[in-house]
Structures are given as structure tokens and as C-alpha cells.
Amino acid sequence: MNTAWQKFKDNVPLRRVVVFLLIVACLYEMRAMMNTILLTFIFTYVIVHLIRLVQRYIPKMPTGIIVVVTYLIILALLYFVITVYLPMLVVQISKMVKSVMVFYESDESLRLMSYVTRYISKSELIEQAKHAMTFAFHTATNIGTLTIATFMSLILSFFYTIELKKMREFSSLFVKSGYLKWLFEDICYFGKKFTNTFGVVLEAQFLIAICNTALTMIGLAIMRMPQIVALGLMVFILSLVPVAGVIISLIPLSIVGYSVGGIRYVIYIFIMIMIIHAVEAYVLNPKFMASKTELPIFYTFLVLLVAEHFWGSWGLIVGVPIFTFFLDVLGIKPTKKSKKKAVLK
């Protein structure tokens, strides 16, 4: 028995597979808390990187001061969002909904719907409408849950980062433990892999989403589109979905554009989205994800479909980073050398 146990501990690949399956099983059992877990990781990751950035330029700046100032700024921004931005957003969304309703009541919309119904049965349209209403209902009911999860994640990330040095020292004691030292070593191994892949890819996608939103809002401002703030928020959220997000945003933007300026504005928006998509594909992705695994578009869409099926809306945001983490763990990662060989061939 002892010999078999010792062989298991010495067999590192088998041991890590078992530990990985245990982690997956634990996360599955804690799936009800997944919003809090993911948001806590994201907030903590961002704050820790902010601490390192500040201390790179001001080495003697205490960690506690950086964390307290950062969270005071976050609280001030939350107050601004709730008291100023949220009422303005509600007004703009209501105007956007009214403009969409005007479009649906117009003669052009009736002709378009009659054209569509030639190829799509009414039962299919009713079924899709039911799905849309169900999705809207679930989204509305989940807002309260997501809000609580966000505040809990902020509190947890605050206590983690305010005692960052103490947390690291205490966590290192697990790796130095006796009987289960191998278990905590493997958990630490997967934790580092997860941070180095999931965190960095998610950070890169966040920066890409900011750039996409800024470019889109500039284009909408040039076109003098209404409700730019509401449309910008929608584009930012959709841009967190890799590759597909920019394309998905074309649909609501086209509807609003048609209600404002007719088919001419739809063409303008289509050209603008294609330009922004090209900038994302050929400029932003190589810039922010140069050191990461670059997935082909087919794999990206496949991962998004599977992740959305299992994890819902969260899957669209974290699906690609998690898949990149799996590739890193399995050692599937194209190198620059292999790429050069492929070019030479």
C-alpha cells in the first residue's frame, strides 16, 4: 500500500491529472458561486497588476495606500454611475427602444417582415420570440444576483490585496507542509498556469474592448447618432466576446442607424464595423496577444459555442481564456520557430 502510494506521488503527470480533476469537481460543486469566484479573480488580478505598476515607478509606495486609494476611486466611480450615469443610461435606452419600435411600425419594416416570412415559418418566429423573452426575463432576474456578487467580489479582493504580502507568506506555508505537500505544489502549479494564461488573455481582451468601444463611439459621434452612451456600453460588453462581439454589435447598431438615417446609415455602420473588426484582427490582437496562443477563427467560434452552452453568458467572455489555459497545461503552444518553418515551407 505504501509502495503504491509512493509511486503515485512520484508519478508527477498522473498526480497532476488527478489533482486537476479534483479542482474541476470542486468548481462544479461551487458552480452557484461562479459569478463571485470569477469576479473576485478579475478584480484581484487587476488590482495586483496596478500595485506592481505603481511600485515600479514609486518603489517605496506602501501597498496598503495604493489599495485604499484605488478602492476609494472605485467607490467614487460607483457613486457617479448610480447617481449620474445610470439615470442618463435609462433615458437613452428608453429612447433607443422607442426608435426601434418606430422602425418596427414603419412601412419599410412591414415589407421587410413580409419578405422574411416567405422563407421562415411563423411558428419559428414565435419560438424565437419566446426564447428572446425568456432570455430577457432571466437577464432581469439575474441583475440583483450579479450586483450582490460584484460587491462581495470587491470586498474579497480588497481584503486579499490589502494584506498581499501576508497572504503570500501564509499561502507559501501550504507548499511547505508535510503529508500533503505534493497536493499543494500541484495546486500552486495550476494556479500559476491559470494566472499566466487566463488572466493575461482576459486583460488583453479588456484592452481590446476599450479600443473597440472608443473607435465605435467616435464613429457614432461623427454620424451624429443618438444615445451614444448607451450604444457605447452595449458595444463594450459585446466586445468582451472575442472576434464575434464586434460582429454581433452590428445588428442593434444597424436597427438604430436605420431608424435615424435609413439604409444609408446602415451602410455607414456596416463599413465602420468592418474597419473596426479589421483593426482588431490585424492591429489590436497582435499587439495585446503577441505572446499568447493565437487561435484560428474556427476554433474561437467553436469554443464560444461550447462555452456558451455550458456556462451561458459567462462562457462567451471566459471561454477563450479557459481554453488557452487548457492548451498551456497540455503544452500545445505554437512557437515563433515553428511559425517561421511553416512560412518557409
UniProtKB/TrEMBL annotation:
<feature type="transmembrane region" description="Helical">
    <location>
        <begin position="200"/>
        <end position="222"/>
    </location>
</feature>
<comment type="similarity">
    <text>Belongs to the autoinducer-2 exporter (AI-2E) (TC 2.A.86) family.</text>
</comment>
<keyword id="KW-0472">Membrane</keyword>
<dbReference type="InterPro" id="IPR002549">
    <property type="entry name" value="AI-2E-like"/>
</dbReference>
<feature type="transmembrane region" description="Helical">
    <location>
        <begin position="143"/>
        <end position="162"/>
    </location>
</feature>
<dbReference type="GO" id="GO:0055085">
    <property type="term" value="P:transmembrane transport"/>
</dbReference>
<feature type="transmembrane region" description="Helical">
    <location>
        <begin position="12"/>
        <end position="30"/>
    </location>
</feature>
<keyword id="KW-0812">Transmembrane</keyword>
<feature type="transmembrane region" description="Helical">
    <location>
        <begin position="297"/>
        <end position="330"/>
    </location>
</feature>
<feature type="transmembrane region" description="Helical">
    <location>
        <begin position="265"/>
        <end position="285"/>
    </location>
</feature>
<protein>
    <submittedName>
        <fullName>Integral membrane protein</fullName>
    </submittedName>
</protein>
<feature type="transmembrane region" description="Helical">
    <location>
        <begin position="228"/>
        <end position="253"/>
    </location>
</feature>
<keyword id="KW-1133">Transmembrane helix</keyword>
<dbReference type="Pfam" id="PF01594">
    <property type="entry name" value="AI-2E_transport"/>
</dbReference>
<dbReference type="GO" id="GO:0016020">
    <property type="term" value="C:membrane"/>
</dbReference>
<feature type="transmembrane region" description="Helical">
    <location>
        <begin position="66"/>
        <end position="86"/>
    </location>
</feature>
<feature type="transmembrane region" description="Helical">
    <location>
        <begin position="36"/>
        <end position="54"/>
    </location>
</feature>
